[in-house]
Write a structure and sequence with these properties.
alpha/beta, 17 helices, 32% helix
């Protein structure tokens, strides 16, 4: 069935071919049964030899159906992603080194298309595999229910988990090293109604490639941020939900601070990036290695800079403040909705306001926003009713851009992501406000002329870099 210029493929049909096979022969599946595999093929590029080769390759009788080349290419681009690493390197690589091990192939594929997570999910009749790409989950495979337990056991064996335990959640780690590819994978197993759901998060990225100038801060925000991190002691806090890029911002900051004269220690859960010259510690709560206990030890390790993966409780927050008071620069993340909301959260954790006022250098909040594909975005007139009801823009928007989809963006309409930031440096006036618990968010942001998350999101929207759908939640939370 052809829709929007491409053939709609079910996941069951899609997984009959690998991306390499589909692009090499310029084919897409039409149907399959025990004896026959039906394939669409570009009628203009047929040379008469494909059928014999494909029958040998798949071990079935092949039936070919000529189709328009434009429709075929659009379908291939949508459903069979080429390696992102291959595209960025600008040279051909042996993309996914296929083996008989489905799990190995799955990990290779996720790595090549730069997926952050692999989800293995059991249901009553069948199971599915989804991958998170640019923050969105995409269904990649449908598995038979009888094949699923063996796949879960294979994951458990590789991550040193108990294959006999199916009633309790388990967490593990896979150190993946195969054919030149090496990275860490965090494994989480969760018992559900129809079996164990598994999530594999791909880690171990090299932070040497991160550039703070390309993350999304405005020039004004960048100057404020760099001025704060150059102070020899104090606390830098980054807030935002899971998956908003907080750790990336922290490592971009550490990359600037990292040199031969500085002792940098980090405690993380998990270690998402590696950076030469930094001493990284993996959290292990099961044996008592918590953020708070690690921080106590760090203070005896003669550190200059300490990075805490997350401030989760009052004890960790108070230890971070103590470290800052004793002359260390502390970088950390915290879960709040805004940069100023971080202060309220720490006060709720029973950190004395006068200590916060004396130690916090800067508080930042961030979100990730998908960017429109520059190749295919389309300009349209804008209807103000598309804004959330509680959001009142300070200026009028006449036109906006909408996602369309093309070969370059795999017909998603979006290509890449950018962070939007809200940054508050603490000056004397704000420090006094914290001591007196005067925490009027909007009043301070307006008075100091600071850009909020909504302001930054609107800047991207006004410049035609993103869509109203992508920033709607940010504008809606602009309270």
């Amino acid at each position: 069935m052809i829709e929007n210029g491409h053939i709609e493929l079910s996941t069951e049909l899609q997984q009959l071919l690998t991306p390499e096979q589909a692009w090499h022969y310029f084919i897409i599946p039409k149907y399959t049964n025990i004896a026959t595999l039906g394939l669409y093929i570009d009628g203009d590029k047929q040379n008469g030899h494909e059928k014999d080769e494909l029958e040998i390759l798949f071990g079935k009788k092949i039936e070919l159906f000529p189709i328009d080349g434009h429709v075929l290419r659009k379908t291939l681009s949508k459903y069979y992603r080429k390696s992102e690493k291959q595209n960025k390197r600008g040279r051909q690589v042996d993309s996914i080194k296929r083996s008989d091990d489905f799990l190995t192939n799955l990990i290779y594929e996720a790595s090549e298309i730069e997926s952050s997570d692999i989800h293995l999910e059991p249901y009553e009749e069948q199971c599915r595999v989804r991958m998170r790409i640019d923050g969105k989950l995409v269904e990649r495979y449908i598995l038979k229910k009888k094949d699923y337990p063996a796949l879960v056991n294979k994951v458990k064996i590789k991550s040193n988990l108990d294959i006999a335990e199916k009633r309790l959640p388990q967490d593990g780690r896979i150190f993946f090293n195969n054919n030149g590819e090496h990275f860490d994978i965090r494994v989480s197993v969760l018992p559900t109604l129809h079996g164990e759901k598994v999530v594999l998060r791909l880690l171990g990225k090299d932070a040497a490639q991160i550039d703070i100038g390309h993350l999304g801060m405005s020039r004004y925000q960048m100057n404020i941020f760099l001025e704060a991190v150059k102070k020899p002691h104090g606390i830098i806090l980054i807030s935002g939900p899971t998956g908003s890029g907080k750790t990336t911002t922290l490592y971009a900051t550490l990359k600037i601070l990292n040199n031969e004269l500085t002792n940098i220690l980090t405690i993380e859960d998990p270690i998402e990036y590696t950076l030469e010259g930094i001493n990284q510690v993996q959290l292990k709560e099961s044996i008592g290695l918590t953020f708070a206990s690690a921080l106590r030890t760090f203070l005896r390790q003669d550190p200059d800079i300490i990075m805490l993966g997350e401030i989760r409780d009052g004890e960790t927050a108070r230890m971070a403040v103590r470290a800052a008071l004793t002359g260390h620069l502390v970088l950390s993340t915290i879960h709040t909705n805004s940069a100023w909301g971080t202060i309220s959260r720490l006060i709720d954790m029973e950190v004395p306001p006068f200590l916060l006022a004396n130690t916090i250098n800067l508080s930042a909040a961030q979100r990730l926003v998908r960017l429109l594909c520059p190749e295919c975005k389309k300009k349209e007139s804008f209807d103000p009713s598309m804004f959330p009801k509680n959001f009142k823009p300070s200026y009028q928007i006449i036109n906006h851009y909408i996602p369309v989809g093309c070969e370059s963006c795999y017909y998603t309409g979006y290509k890449g992501r950018s962070a939007v930031y809200e940054i508050i440096p603490l000056d004397e006036e704000l420090s006094e406000a914290i001591k007196e618990k005067r925490l009027d968010y909007h009043g301070f942001m307006k008075e100091k002329n600071n850009q909020t998350l909504a302001d930054q999101a609107m800047r991207l929207f006004e410049n035609g870099e993103t869509s109203i759908e992508e920033i709607y939640n940010i504008l809606m939370n602009n309270f």
